[in-house]
Amino acid sequence: MPGHxxxxxxxxxxxxxxxxxxxxxxxxxxxxxxxxxxxELLRRMYGSNESFILTGGSTAGIQAMxxxxxxxGDTLLxxxxxxxxxxxxxxxxxxxxxxxxxxxxxxGHYAGFDEAALESSLDGASALIAxxxxxxxRSKDIKRLAAICHKRNIPFLAxxxxxxxxxxxxxxxxxxxxxxxxxxxxSAHKTLNALTGAxxxxxxxxxxxxxxxxxxxxxxxxxxxxxxxxxxxEAAAMTMSAEDWERxxxxxxxxxxxxxxxxxxxxxxxxxxxxxxxxxxxxxEKILADKFGIDIEMADSMSVILIATPSNTEEDxxxxxxxxxxxxxxxxxxxxxxxPRPLPPNGVFSPxxxxxxxxxxxxxxxxxxxxxxxxxxxxxxxxxxxxCGAPVTSQMTESIDGLIHCGAxxxxxxxxxxxxxxxxx
Length: 425
Description:
single chain, alpha/beta, Aspartate Aminotransferase, domain 1, eight-stranded mixed β-sheet, 16% strand
């Protein structure tokens, strides 16, 4: 990302609109006729009741929809693969958080959820949020999750940051806002021809207070939104083409057939996930960058993850095929994950209590049993292994230590060794 691939897909002269709120440009926070018309087109395209353009990324959308859907002191239930912005927003808003662990396959990828366990976890919760699709292109059953929530008369919130392109073709899963989600956030810049920070927020139904949602958008976003970002978000949506995306899917399918590496089966056919055999994904990432000049989206201990869009050329796919065949020469055997996925914190916890408490830095290896005052995550994907306000376990610290030794980029630690925890009284 971004999906425009070094500017190939951006409108020409996009910076000409880098101006402030003028009569001709209107105000994104107080739309006139031109912006309202643009938002109406966006609403129709994505199947929502109302849509908004954001310039602060999906993070701004998550902040706004949590502020609109819950009140301070409420409990939010989230799937445990949530982005760290969910935990941070709970800290800001004084929300309590409970993490629900889904089912995973032998390689640690999403493989469904236990409905009875989810129903039980929803007791006492005021809303549910889920990432779909995830970083690996796997989607959750949005329609079913929404139905479970609506039976309890609580909103279902969808973090569909990686699915802004789903509206382009029926070869993709449907957009969350069209099949039951009460609020859906999407990052336009991840997969579309939009500048970094461009995003959409969609609302459907009556379970989320739209008046509060609009106020929240004004609260969490700058009062001087970037018009180049906003204009690129508008153009990216309006120029989506089924033909272009289906051509990209064709290239991706041909690539998978041509490369002797196991590819992950997923729902987003343009999200390429290849197991790297005898190499770690981090080692393969370095080879791709240093030897072939190919920057990938993300690596983990056993795979590389790439985002393909219509702004990638046929030559891009040819070069990537050659590079992945070179990686495959090291050995295509797929080994099991080097460390098990750590269990999320048990029960309800308060990110606010962790963030606002007096804190101290301690070595990561001694942090088990302490309460975290920060999030610690491998970034990307930005899914916290340690959550602010929750107890730290030895399984969590061992997982982070293993990721560091594999070459992962870790955010949240101080000096790559210390973690900030709540100070003991």
